[in-house]
Known about the structure:
Distance between the termini: 99 Å
Helix content: 40-55%
Largest sheet: 3 strands, antiparallel
Amino acid sequence: xxxxxxxxxxxxxxxxxxxxxxxxxxxxxxxxxxxxxxxxxxxxxxxxxxxxxxxxxxxxxxxxxxxxxxxxxxxxxxxxxxxxxxxxxxxxxxxxxxxxxxxxxxxxxxxxxxxxxxxxxxxxxxxxxxxxxxxxxxxxxxxxxxxxxxxxxxxxxxxxxxxxxxxxxxxxxxxxxxxxxxxxxxxxxxxxxxxxxxxxxxxxxxxxxxxxxxxxxxxxxxxxxxxxxxxxxxxxxxxxxxxxxxxxxxxxxxxxxxxxxxxxxxxxxxxxxxxxxxxxxxxxxxxxxxxxxxxxxxxxxxxxxxxxxxxxxxxxxxxxxxxxxxxxxxxxxxxxxxxxxxxxxxxxxxxxxxxxxxxxxxxxxxxxxxxxxxxxxxxxxxxxxxxxxxxxxxxxxxxxxxxxxxxxxxxxxxxxxxxxxxxxxxxxxxxxxxxxxxxxxxxxxxxxxxxxxxxxxxxxxxxxxxxxxxxxxxxx
Length: 476
């Protein structure tokens, strides 16, 4: 007859007979930065004595896994998973995203379901509900439902946490496997034409952003990287520019940190003409930062303000609306079209590998390969094969290169202001002093500047009438 040792439940610790004849009890009291368990152990001559010592040890350390059971609420499990296995390994921005999804969406909706009772149907219904009405903030401008990308991210968190529960023996199978998710859609790459670039830079120069956007179009840096540049990073003699930090925003505060990957720490070589422009620009900047904040030159510029200014400059220059990241795509596209090899481009823009670059710009590199094949055919076969060209249907631009930069009108006092929030939403704001002597803000939103101006004018009339009525009432 073969005796099979009974498996102890998760959190109870382990008992084993050592080679020297003594019994050893061991429990997990926590996890280190690499998610490896930290253990404590006790020894005794007999199994009974060792078990008693083990219980005392568990009470002493308050075992981290004492409450970890198959029937625990899923919300407690995903919190334990986040705090124990991945929270300390994430960057600040990623950590903020994880916490928002876990504590604002997952736990409030399905956190009370027992871990071993959570089914694929529960998860599927949860995703459907979040898709139609899961948004907590900015519902007026962005709609009530979460985006496909956010739903997929929520699913990724649930699936990873549940897979850990499978590994720890709490559940047999992962209910998140097989869930139907919104399709993964890559954002369409937008690239500015040569004419658009000239108009854009002309307008940027008129608004004091020429050097920033010229450097971006000449290097393809990420927004956080270019705003984190210091003058000490640039060698004016050799043109070498060192990229070794980035800025980003956490709860309206500008944070400076190291780049996300090792490949992002790199050195790029600037052209002599660009170095001369920066050297001249350096004379007007009294700060260690290359692009300091207009409000505090001891700090870098706020990424959000640059994003808003980009959209404003594009609109005034008569260019299509693109993201800051599309300026990076514009640089990469021009570099490939003018003969830069993929390996060099990958190192320049800070991709982890050339495979990433090939995947993103496959529509260009495929054409480059066909062009190389035609050249070989012409050279060896003596043919007159037609040379394929990059499809530039989306890059046609018939607008004139020369144009007069837009000069914004100075708004009269009491007419409010209009701001472009993103590429499809405008905000109108009016901040008068109310009947009680306090400043209060009133906002409206629209899809075009013209519509926003019209709504703003109507809102101002209503607000003024309301304030007047309140003052008369107070007087009476």
